[in-house]
Specification:
Blueprint lengths: L1 H8 L10 H4 L12 H8 L9 H4 L7 H9 L3 H9 L5 H7 L21 H14 L15 E5 L3 H12 L3 E5 L8 H4 L8 H14 L2 E3 L10 H6 L5 E4 L5 E2 L12 E3 H10 L17 E5 L3 H12 L3 E5 L11 H10 L2 E3 L2 E8 L5 E14 L5 E5 L5 E4 L2 E4 L3 E2 L3 H4 L26 E3 L2 H4 L4 H21 L8
Parallel strand pairs: 1-2, 1-4, 2-3, 4-16, 6-14, 7-8, 7-14, 8-9
Antiparallel strand pairs: 5-15, 10-11, 11-12, 11-13
Length: about 475
Protein backbone atom coordinates (compact mmCIF):
# COMPACT_ATOMS: atom_id res chain seq x y z
CA UNK A 1 0.00 0.00 0.00
CA UNK A 2 2.81 2.38 0.91
CA UNK A 3 4.38 1.79 -2.49
CA UNK A 4 1.16 2.89 -4.26
CA UNK A 5 1.07 6.09 -2.20
CA UNK A 6 4.69 6.81 -3.08
CA UNK A 7 4.01 6.28 -6.78
CA UNK A 8 1.19 8.78 -6.83
CA UNK A 9 3.38 11.34 -5.10
CA UNK A 10 6.00 11.22 -7.87
CA UNK A 11 5.47 13.97 -10.45
CA UNK A 12 5.99 13.30 -14.16
CA UNK A 13 9.67 13.79 -14.85
CA UNK A 14 10.60 16.55 -17.31
CA UNK A 15 13.01 15.58 -20.07
CA UNK A 16 16.13 17.78 -20.22
CA UNK A 17 16.44 19.71 -23.47
CA UNK A 18 18.44 22.41 -25.23
CA UNK A 19 17.63 26.00 -24.34
CA UNK A 20 15.65 27.76 -27.10
CA UNK A 21 18.29 30.47 -27.66
CA UNK A 22 20.88 27.73 -28.28
CA UNK A 23 18.89 25.32 -30.40
CA UNK A 24 17.69 27.89 -32.96
CA UNK A 25 21.33 28.08 -34.05
CA UNK A 26 21.75 24.35 -34.65
CA UNK A 27 19.94 21.26 -35.92
CA UNK A 28 20.88 19.09 -32.93
CA UNK A 29 18.09 17.12 -31.33
CA UNK A 30 16.09 19.31 -28.94
CA UNK A 31 15.42 16.90 -26.01
CA UNK A 32 18.45 15.18 -24.50
CA UNK A 33 16.46 12.18 -23.27
CA UNK A 34 16.11 10.74 -19.78
CA UNK A 35 19.09 9.82 -17.66
CA UNK A 36 18.99 6.36 -16.04
CA UNK A 37 17.92 7.96 -12.75
CA UNK A 38 15.10 9.96 -14.34
CA UNK A 39 13.93 6.92 -16.31
CA UNK A 40 13.72 4.75 -13.18
CA UNK A 41 11.88 7.48 -11.30
CA UNK A 42 9.41 8.01 -14.14
CA UNK A 43 8.90 4.25 -14.53
CA UNK A 44 8.04 4.01 -10.84
CA UNK A 45 4.93 6.10 -11.53
CA UNK A 46 3.38 3.17 -13.42
CA UNK A 47 0.91 1.28 -11.19
CA UNK A 48 0.95 -1.87 -13.37
CA UNK A 49 -2.77 -2.04 -14.16
CA UNK A 50 -4.24 -5.54 -14.39
CA UNK A 51 -6.00 -4.45 -17.57
CA UNK A 52 -3.49 -2.07 -19.14
CA UNK A 53 -5.41 0.20 -21.49
CA UNK A 54 -2.14 1.64 -22.77
CA UNK A 55 -1.38 -1.63 -24.59
CA UNK A 56 -4.72 -1.65 -26.39
CA UNK A 57 -4.20 2.01 -27.34
CA UNK A 58 -0.86 1.24 -29.02
CA UNK A 59 -1.30 0.37 -32.72
CA UNK A 60 1.38 -2.33 -32.46
CA UNK A 61 0.34 -3.48 -28.95
CA UNK A 62 3.72 -3.13 -27.23
CA UNK A 63 3.73 -4.86 -23.82
CA UNK A 64 4.13 -1.54 -22.04
CA UNK A 65 3.80 -2.70 -18.40
CA UNK A 66 6.45 -5.37 -19.00
CA UNK A 67 9.11 -3.04 -20.35
CA UNK A 68 8.29 -0.32 -17.82
CA UNK A 69 8.67 -2.88 -15.01
CA UNK A 70 12.11 -3.80 -16.36
CA UNK A 71 13.12 -0.13 -16.30
CA UNK A 72 11.84 0.11 -12.72
CA UNK A 73 14.20 -2.76 -11.90
CA UNK A 74 17.12 -1.11 -13.68
CA UNK A 75 17.14 -3.84 -16.37
CA UNK A 76 17.44 -1.39 -19.25
CA UNK A 77 18.79 -3.74 -21.92
CA UNK A 78 16.08 -6.26 -21.13
CA UNK A 79 13.52 -3.46 -21.46
CA UNK A 80 14.79 -2.56 -24.93
CA UNK A 81 14.64 -6.19 -26.05
CA UNK A 82 11.14 -6.55 -24.65
CA UNK A 83 9.96 -3.61 -26.75
CA UNK A 84 11.61 -5.04 -29.85
CA UNK A 85 9.47 -8.14 -29.62
CA UNK A 86 6.63 -5.91 -30.90
CA UNK A 87 8.35 -2.89 -32.42
CA UNK A 88 11.46 -2.90 -34.64
CA UNK A 89 11.73 0.90 -34.48
CA UNK A 90 11.52 1.84 -30.77
CA UNK A 91 13.93 4.79 -30.88
CA UNK A 92 11.91 6.27 -33.73
CA UNK A 93 8.53 5.71 -32.11
CA UNK A 94 9.78 7.04 -28.77
CA UNK A 95 10.48 10.32 -30.54
CA UNK A 96 7.73 10.90 -33.11
CA UNK A 97 4.65 8.92 -32.02
CA UNK A 98 1.70 11.03 -30.80
CA UNK A 99 1.76 9.27 -27.41
CA UNK A 100 -0.66 11.77 -25.90
CA UNK A 101 -3.35 10.43 -28.24
CA UNK A 102 -2.38 6.76 -27.95
CA UNK A 103 -0.68 4.92 -25.07
CA UNK A 104 -0.38 7.91 -22.75
CA UNK A 105 -3.88 9.05 -23.65
CA UNK A 106 -5.19 5.77 -22.18
CA UNK A 107 -2.95 5.76 -19.08
CA UNK A 108 -5.01 5.36 -15.90
CA UNK A 109 -2.66 7.66 -13.99
CA UNK A 110 -3.65 10.35 -16.45
CA UNK A 111 -7.21 10.42 -15.12
CA UNK A 112 -6.09 12.45 -12.09
CA UNK A 113 -2.44 13.25 -12.76
CA UNK A 114 -0.14 13.54 -15.75
CA UNK A 115 0.16 10.16 -17.52
CA UNK A 116 3.28 8.04 -17.31
CA UNK A 117 5.78 9.24 -19.96
CA UNK A 118 5.64 5.97 -21.90
CA UNK A 119 7.13 7.38 -25.09
CA UNK A 120 10.10 8.89 -23.30
CA UNK A 121 10.74 5.60 -21.50
CA UNK A 122 10.60 3.72 -24.82
CA UNK A 123 13.11 6.18 -26.26
CA UNK A 124 15.36 5.82 -23.21
CA UNK A 125 15.48 2.01 -23.42
CA UNK A 126 16.21 2.01 -27.16
CA UNK A 127 18.92 4.67 -26.80
CA UNK A 128 20.49 2.86 -23.85
CA UNK A 129 20.85 -0.32 -25.90
CA UNK A 130 22.22 1.50 -28.95
CA UNK A 131 24.71 3.66 -27.05
CA UNK A 132 26.22 0.57 -25.47
CA UNK A 133 26.42 -1.32 -28.76
CA UNK A 134 24.41 -4.01 -27.02
CA UNK A 135 21.96 -4.72 -29.84
CA UNK A 136 21.42 -8.46 -30.13
CA UNK A 137 19.99 -10.44 -33.01
CA UNK A 138 17.15 -12.80 -32.09
CA UNK A 139 16.96 -16.32 -33.44
CA UNK A 140 15.21 -16.45 -36.81
CA UNK A 141 12.68 -19.07 -37.85
CA UNK A 142 13.96 -21.73 -40.31
CA UNK A 143 14.04 -20.51 -43.95
CA UNK A 144 10.75 -21.01 -45.79
CA UNK A 145 12.14 -20.51 -49.30
CA UNK A 146 9.57 -17.79 -49.92
CA UNK A 147 10.58 -14.39 -51.34
CA UNK A 148 8.82 -11.15 -50.44
CA UNK A 149 9.16 -7.76 -52.15
CA UNK A 150 8.45 -4.70 -50.02
CA UNK A 151 7.87 -1.52 -52.03
CA UNK A 152 8.86 1.51 -50.00
CA UNK A 153 11.24 1.73 -47.03
CA UNK A 154 9.08 3.88 -44.79
CA UNK A 155 7.61 2.89 -41.40
CA UNK A 156 5.07 0.40 -42.79
CA UNK A 157 7.56 -1.26 -45.15
CA UNK A 158 10.26 -1.53 -42.50
CA UNK A 159 7.79 -3.12 -40.08
CA UNK A 160 6.68 -5.70 -42.64
CA UNK A 161 10.30 -6.47 -43.53
CA UNK A 162 11.33 -6.94 -39.90
CA UNK A 163 8.36 -9.15 -39.03
CA UNK A 164 8.63 -11.41 -42.09
CA UNK A 165 12.39 -11.94 -41.95
CA UNK A 166 11.98 -13.14 -38.36
CA UNK A 167 9.51 -15.72 -39.65
CA UNK A 168 12.06 -17.16 -42.07
CA UNK A 169 11.05 -15.43 -45.30
CA UNK A 170 13.55 -13.79 -47.65
CA UNK A 171 12.73 -10.08 -47.79
CA UNK A 172 13.90 -7.44 -50.27
CA UNK A 173 12.92 -3.79 -49.80
CA UNK A 174 12.83 -1.54 -52.88
CA UNK A 175 13.26 2.18 -52.20
CA UNK A 176 13.19 5.04 -54.72
CA UNK A 177 15.58 7.31 -52.80
CA UNK A 178 19.18 6.84 -51.68
CA UNK A 179 18.58 5.72 -48.11
CA UNK A 180 15.89 3.66 -46.38
CA UNK A 181 13.51 5.38 -44.01
CA UNK A 182 11.03 7.23 -46.21
CA UNK A 183 9.40 10.02 -44.24
CA UNK A 184 11.61 9.19 -41.27
CA UNK A 185 14.72 10.07 -43.26
CA UNK A 186 13.46 12.76 -45.65
CA UNK A 187 10.36 14.25 -44.06
CA UNK A 188 11.26 14.79 -40.40
CA UNK A 189 14.00 17.29 -39.50
CA UNK A 190 17.21 16.31 -37.76
CA UNK A 191 16.33 18.24 -34.58
CA UNK A 192 13.28 16.02 -34.07
CA UNK A 193 14.57 12.70 -35.41
CA UNK A 194 18.33 12.42 -36.02
CA UNK A 195 19.33 10.48 -39.12
CA UNK A 196 21.67 8.31 -37.05
CA UNK A 197 18.64 6.93 -35.18
CA UNK A 198 16.93 5.86 -38.41
CA UNK A 199 20.17 4.43 -39.79
CA UNK A 200 20.74 2.42 -36.62
CA UNK A 201 17.27 0.90 -36.72
CA UNK A 202 17.59 0.12 -40.46
CA UNK A 203 21.00 -1.42 -39.73
CA UNK A 204 19.28 -3.71 -37.20
CA UNK A 205 16.98 -4.94 -39.98
CA UNK A 206 19.99 -5.53 -42.25
CA UNK A 207 21.57 -7.64 -39.54
CA UNK A 208 18.35 -9.65 -39.37
CA UNK A 209 18.84 -10.39 -43.07
CA UNK A 210 16.60 -7.84 -44.83
CA UNK A 211 18.05 -6.79 -48.18
CA UNK A 212 17.65 -3.21 -49.43
CA UNK A 213 17.71 -2.13 -53.08
CA UNK A 214 18.04 1.65 -53.32
CA UNK A 215 17.35 4.09 -56.18
CA UNK A 216 14.81 1.60 -57.53
CA UNK A 217 11.40 2.91 -58.52
CA UNK A 218 8.70 0.26 -58.63
CA UNK A 219 6.34 1.43 -61.33
CA UNK A 220 9.32 2.46 -63.51
CA UNK A 221 12.17 -0.06 -63.08
CA UNK A 222 9.61 -2.84 -62.78
CA UNK A 223 5.91 -3.18 -62.01
CA UNK A 224 4.11 -5.08 -59.29
CA UNK A 225 3.04 -7.67 -61.85
CA UNK A 226 6.64 -8.11 -63.05
CA UNK A 227 7.86 -8.60 -59.46
CA UNK A 228 5.35 -11.44 -59.09
CA UNK A 229 5.42 -13.06 -62.53
CA UNK A 230 8.97 -12.46 -63.78
CA UNK A 231 11.21 -11.81 -60.77
CA UNK A 232 10.04 -14.68 -58.64
CA UNK A 233 8.56 -12.95 -55.61
CA UNK A 234 5.80 -14.91 -53.88
CA UNK A 235 4.16 -11.85 -52.30
CA UNK A 236 4.42 -8.06 -52.46
CA UNK A 237 3.75 -5.35 -49.89
CA UNK A 238 3.00 -1.82 -51.12
CA UNK A 239 4.04 0.86 -48.63
CA UNK A 240 4.72 3.83 -50.89
CA UNK A 241 3.19 6.43 -48.57
CA UNK A 242 1.58 9.79 -49.27
CA UNK A 243 4.14 11.93 -51.03
CA UNK A 244 1.93 13.89 -53.42
CA UNK A 245 1.53 17.39 -51.94
CA UNK A 246 -1.72 19.33 -51.73
CA UNK A 247 -1.91 23.04 -52.55
CA UNK A 248 -4.37 25.84 -51.78
CA UNK A 249 -5.16 26.34 -55.49
CA UNK A 250 -4.98 30.11 -55.02
CA UNK A 251 -3.51 32.65 -57.46
CA UNK A 252 0.28 32.96 -57.36
CA UNK A 253 1.09 29.45 -56.12
CA UNK A 254 3.23 28.93 -59.24
CA UNK A 255 5.60 31.77 -58.33
CA UNK A 256 9.28 31.18 -57.55
CA UNK A 257 9.60 30.82 -53.79
CA UNK A 258 6.45 28.74 -53.20
CA UNK A 259 7.17 25.21 -51.95
CA UNK A 260 5.13 22.33 -50.74
CA UNK A 261 6.27 21.33 -47.25
CA UNK A 262 7.10 17.94 -48.72
CA UNK A 263 9.53 19.49 -51.22
CA UNK A 264 10.96 21.93 -48.69
CA UNK A 265 11.73 19.32 -46.04
CA UNK A 266 13.03 16.80 -48.59
CA UNK A 267 15.36 19.45 -50.03
CA UNK A 268 16.53 20.37 -46.53
CA UNK A 269 17.29 16.75 -45.69
CA UNK A 270 18.79 15.73 -49.04
CA UNK A 271 20.99 18.85 -49.14
CA UNK A 272 22.07 18.34 -45.53
CA UNK A 273 20.69 21.61 -44.22
CA UNK A 274 21.17 20.10 -40.78
CA UNK A 275 24.92 20.44 -41.35
CA UNK A 276 24.64 24.14 -42.24
CA UNK A 277 26.95 26.06 -42.68
CA UNK A 278 29.26 23.11 -43.44
CA UNK A 279 26.81 22.31 -46.26
CA UNK A 280 25.23 25.41 -47.81
CA UNK A 281 21.62 25.10 -48.91
CA UNK A 282 21.00 28.27 -50.94
CA UNK A 283 17.82 27.17 -52.75
CA UNK A 284 15.80 27.07 -49.53
CA UNK A 285 17.46 29.77 -47.40
CA UNK A 286 15.20 32.82 -47.26
CA UNK A 287 14.67 35.85 -45.02
CA UNK A 288 10.90 36.15 -44.69
CA UNK A 289 8.99 32.91 -44.67
CA UNK A 290 5.31 32.02 -44.19
CA UNK A 291 4.20 28.46 -43.54
CA UNK A 292 0.55 27.71 -44.27
CA UNK A 293 -0.96 25.02 -42.00
CA UNK A 294 -1.22 23.96 -38.37
CA UNK A 295 0.03 20.36 -38.27
CA UNK A 296 3.32 18.76 -37.29
CA UNK A 297 4.66 19.14 -40.84
CA UNK A 298 3.97 22.88 -40.66
CA UNK A 299 5.89 23.07 -37.37
CA UNK A 300 8.77 21.06 -38.86
CA UNK A 301 8.93 23.38 -41.88
CA UNK A 302 8.77 26.54 -39.77
CA UNK A 303 11.46 25.42 -37.34
CA UNK A 304 13.71 24.33 -40.23
CA UNK A 305 13.32 27.73 -41.93
CA UNK A 306 14.05 29.42 -38.60
CA UNK A 307 17.33 27.54 -38.25
CA UNK A 308 18.29 28.58 -41.78
CA UNK A 309 18.04 32.22 -40.75
CA UNK A 310 14.45 33.03 -41.69
CA UNK A 311 11.92 35.26 -39.95
CA UNK A 312 9.07 32.74 -39.88
CA UNK A 313 5.31 33.07 -39.50
CA UNK A 314 2.77 30.24 -39.28
CA UNK A 315 -0.50 31.16 -41.02
CA UNK A 316 -3.41 29.00 -39.90
CA UNK A 317 -7.08 29.54 -40.65
CA UNK A 318 -8.44 28.12 -37.39
CA UNK A 319 -7.82 28.86 -33.68
CA UNK A 320 -4.89 27.61 -31.64
CA UNK A 321 -6.89 24.91 -29.83
CA UNK A 322 -7.88 23.50 -33.23
CA UNK A 323 -4.33 23.06 -34.47
CA UNK A 324 -3.66 19.38 -35.29
CA UNK A 325 0.03 19.60 -34.36
CA UNK A 326 1.25 18.01 -31.15
CA UNK A 327 1.16 20.46 -28.23
CA UNK A 328 4.87 19.84 -27.66
CA UNK A 329 5.74 20.81 -31.22
CA UNK A 330 3.73 24.04 -31.07
CA UNK A 331 5.34 24.85 -27.72
CA UNK A 332 8.84 24.29 -29.10
CA UNK A 333 8.10 26.43 -32.17
CA UNK A 334 6.85 29.30 -30.00
CA UNK A 335 9.83 29.03 -27.68
CA UNK A 336 12.18 29.30 -30.64
CA UNK A 337 10.56 32.43 -32.03
CA UNK A 338 8.16 31.24 -34.74
CA UNK A 339 5.30 33.76 -35.03
CA UNK A 340 1.68 32.67 -35.31
CA UNK A 341 -1.07 34.36 -37.30
CA UNK A 342 -4.11 32.32 -36.26
CA UNK A 343 -7.60 32.70 -37.70
CA UNK A 344 -5.94 33.90 -40.88
CA UNK A 345 -6.35 32.48 -44.38
CA UNK A 346 -4.19 33.23 -47.43
CA UNK A 347 -6.07 34.35 -50.55
CA UNK A 348 -3.23 34.86 -53.08
CA UNK A 349 0.55 34.96 -53.37
CA UNK A 350 2.04 38.17 -54.76
CA UNK A 351 5.11 38.38 -57.00
CA UNK A 352 7.34 40.74 -58.98
CA UNK A 353 8.21 40.96 -62.67
CA UNK A 354 10.69 38.11 -62.29
CA UNK A 355 7.91 35.91 -60.94
CA UNK A 356 9.45 35.78 -57.47
CA UNK A 357 7.37 35.90 -54.32
CA UNK A 358 7.10 39.34 -52.68
CA UNK A 359 4.19 38.81 -50.33
CA UNK A 360 0.93 37.05 -49.53
CA UNK A 361 -2.53 38.53 -49.25
CA UNK A 362 -4.53 37.14 -46.33
CA UNK A 363 -7.93 37.64 -44.75
CA UNK A 364 -8.85 37.40 -41.09
CA UNK A 365 -11.26 34.63 -40.07
CA UNK A 366 -13.73 34.02 -37.26
CA UNK A 367 -15.21 30.74 -36.07
CA UNK A 368 -18.70 29.81 -37.22
CA UNK A 369 -20.79 26.64 -36.84
CA UNK A 370 -19.09 23.20 -36.61
CA UNK A 371 -18.26 21.54 -39.93
CA UNK A 372 -18.20 17.83 -40.84
CA UNK A 373 -14.99 17.38 -38.79
CA UNK A 374 -16.75 18.63 -35.65
CA UNK A 375 -14.54 21.70 -35.49
CA UNK A 376 -16.03 25.18 -35.78
CA UNK A 377 -15.80 26.29 -39.39
CA UNK A 378 -13.58 29.35 -40.03
CA UNK A 379 -15.49 32.13 -41.80
CA UNK A 380 -13.86 35.15 -43.54
CA UNK A 381 -14.28 38.58 -41.90
CA UNK A 382 -15.41 40.92 -44.62
CA UNK A 383 -13.01 43.76 -45.40
CA UNK A 384 -10.17 42.41 -43.24
CA UNK A 385 -7.71 41.68 -46.07
CA UNK A 386 -4.06 42.54 -45.47
CA UNK A 387 -0.65 41.74 -47.00
CA UNK A 388 2.40 40.08 -45.42
CA UNK A 389 5.73 40.85 -47.09
CA UNK A 390 7.56 37.60 -47.85
CA UNK A 391 10.04 35.94 -50.13
CA UNK A 392 9.01 32.33 -49.40
CA UNK A 393 5.72 30.49 -48.89
CA UNK A 394 5.63 26.88 -47.68
CA UNK A 395 2.31 25.10 -48.11
CA UNK A 396 1.81 22.45 -45.40
CA UNK A 397 -1.84 21.47 -45.73
CA UNK A 398 -1.41 17.74 -46.29
CA UNK A 399 -0.34 15.12 -48.80
CA UNK A 400 -2.08 12.66 -51.07
CA UNK A 401 -1.09 9.05 -51.84
CA UNK A 402 1.75 8.45 -54.27
CA UNK A 403 0.00 7.63 -57.56
CA UNK A 404 2.76 5.79 -59.46
CA UNK A 405 2.16 2.20 -58.31
CA UNK A 406 -1.66 2.40 -58.65
CA UNK A 407 -1.31 3.91 -62.15
CA UNK A 408 1.03 1.14 -63.30
CA UNK A 409 -1.01 -1.64 -61.70
CA UNK A 410 -4.39 -1.54 -63.49
CA UNK A 411 -5.91 -4.45 -61.55
CA UNK A 412 -5.23 -2.75 -58.21
CA UNK A 413 -8.44 -1.34 -56.70
CA UNK A 414 -8.09 2.31 -55.71
CA UNK A 415 -10.50 4.60 -53.82
CA UNK A 416 -11.77 7.92 -55.14
CA UNK A 417 -9.09 9.58 -52.98
CA UNK A 418 -6.31 7.64 -54.70
CA UNK A 419 -5.63 5.34 -51.75
CA UNK A 420 -5.12 1.62 -52.31
CA UNK A 421 -8.12 -0.39 -51.13
CA UNK A 422 -7.09 -3.08 -48.65
CA UNK A 423 -9.04 -5.27 -46.22
CA UNK A 424 -8.40 -3.62 -42.82
CA UNK A 425 -8.29 -7.03 -41.13
CA UNK A 426 -5.68 -8.47 -43.46
CA UNK A 427 -4.34 -5.52 -45.53
CA UNK A 428 -4.76 -7.70 -48.64
CA UNK A 429 -5.52 -5.75 -51.81
CA UNK A 430 -7.64 -6.72 -54.80
CA UNK A 431 -4.67 -8.71 -56.19
CA UNK A 432 -3.95 -12.11 -54.57
CA UNK A 433 -0.55 -12.04 -52.89
CA UNK A 434 -0.36 -8.24 -52.90
CA UNK A 435 -0.80 -6.41 -49.60
CA UNK A 436 -0.61 -2.72 -48.71
CA UNK A 437 -0.43 -0.52 -45.64
CA UNK A 438 0.53 2.88 -44.26
CA UNK A 439 -0.32 6.20 -45.85
CA UNK A 440 -0.94 4.65 -49.29
CA UNK A 441 -3.98 2.97 -47.68
CA UNK A 442 -5.03 5.33 -44.90
CA UNK A 443 -3.97 8.67 -46.38
CA UNK A 444 -1.43 10.80 -44.52
CA UNK A 445 -1.38 9.59 -40.89
CA UNK A 446 1.16 8.81 -38.17
CA UNK A 447 4.28 6.65 -38.10
CA UNK A 448 2.85 4.25 -35.54
CA UNK A 449 -0.45 3.80 -37.41
CA UNK A 450 1.54 2.91 -40.52
CA UNK A 451 3.54 0.44 -38.46
CA UNK A 452 0.33 -1.03 -37.05
CA UNK A 453 -0.95 -1.72 -40.56
CA UNK A 454 2.43 -3.18 -41.46
CA UNK A 455 2.15 -5.53 -38.49
CA UNK A 456 -1.32 -6.72 -39.65
CA UNK A 457 -0.06 -7.16 -43.21
CA UNK A 458 2.97 -9.16 -42.08
CA UNK A 459 0.76 -11.62 -40.16
CA UNK A 460 -1.49 -12.06 -43.19
CA UNK A 461 1.43 -12.41 -45.60
CA UNK A 462 3.00 -15.08 -43.43
CA UNK A 463 -0.26 -17.03 -43.53
CA UNK A 464 -0.53 -16.51 -47.29
CA UNK A 465 3.05 -17.63 -47.93
CA UNK A 466 2.59 -20.79 -45.87
CA UNK A 467 -0.97 -21.75 -46.85
CA UNK A 468 -1.61 -19.98 -50.14
CA UNK A 469 -4.53 -18.08 -48.66
CA UNK A 470 -5.26 -15.45 -46.04
CA UNK A 471 -7.41 -16.16 -42.99
CA UNK A 472 -10.44 -13.86 -42.90
CA UNK A 473 -9.57 -12.68 -39.40
CA UNK A 474 -6.08 -11.80 -40.49
CA UNK A 475 -4.72 -13.81 -37.60
Amino acid sequence: MSQAIDKKSIPRQPMPEQEPEDRVRNFDEVPYGFTAELAKLEALRCIMCKNPKCVAACPVNIDIPAFVALIQAGKFLEAARKIKQDNALPAVCGRVCPQEEQCEGACVIGLKHQPVAIGRLERFAADYERHRAAVTIPELAPPTGKRVAVVGAGPAGLTVAGDLVLKGHQVTVFEALQEPGGVLMYGIPEFRLPKEIVRAEVDYLRKLGVQFVMDYVVGRNSTIRELLDEEGYHAVFIGTGAGLPSFMEMPGENLIGVYSANEYLTRANLMKAYLFPEYDTPPIRRRRVAVIGGGNVAMDSARTALRLGGDVTIVYRRAREQMPARVEEVHHAEQEGVKFRLLTNPTRVLGDRRHRVTGMECIEMELGEPDESGRRRPVPKKGSEFVIELDTVIVAIGNKPNPLVPRTTPELQVSKWGTVVADPKTMQTSIPGVFAGGDIVSGAATVILAMGQGRIAARSMDTYLRNGAVAESGS
